[in-house]
Design goal:
By secondary structure, the chain is of the alpha+beta class. It is built from 3 helices and 5 strands. Helices cover 25% and strands 32% of the residues. A hairpin with an 8-residue loop joins strand 2 and strand 3.
Length: 142
């Protein structure tokens, strides 16, 4: 049984609508459902708003800041403008960031990273440990 050519032409708008709805549903699910969530503590090094079309707030947190050792840098994205303002006020300070990880987002318009920070809290700097004398060195009596 052959179908007339005009009925084949009418099917493509429905197929396109189904594909677009599926893409939209997948994007909403990826934004709503978080793969993981947690907290990271470090020194806030950078926060910038960047992008050609979709502007996002991107930041960097330096973890394990020890003199003489290169810090591990953790990159993150901020969607909320109020959180971005608080982060901007905390540049250079030790902060605790709560994040949610959203894997599989279809575009960089949502952010350059999969880690989305949703809250920031200032943290007191760590108390330095007293230097201990090396092996074979006797500490002076008190």
């Amino acid at each position: 049984m052959n179908t007339p050519p005009h009925s084949r032409r009418r099917r493509w708008p429905y197929a396109l609508a189904i594909v677009l709805l599926g893409f939209g549903a997948y994007t909403c699910l990826a934004l709503w459902w978080s793969y993981s969530e947690g907290e990271r503590v470090g020194i806030l090094q950078k926060l910038s708003r960047k992008g050609w079309v979709c502007k996002t707030h991107e930041g960097e947190l330096a973890l394990y800041v020890i003199s003489g050792v290169t810090p591990q840098i953790w990159s993150f994205t901020v969607r909320d403008a109020a959180v971005a303002r608080r982060l901007n006020d905390s540049l250079g300070a030790r902060v605790r960031l709560h994040y949610q990880e959203h894997r599989g987002l279809p575009s960089s318009c949502f952010g350059d990273t999969a880690y989305f920070v949703d809250s920031v809290q200032a943290v007191d700097p760590p108390v330095p440990m007293p230097a201990s004398p090396g092996p074979g060195v006797v500490a002076p009596p008190r």
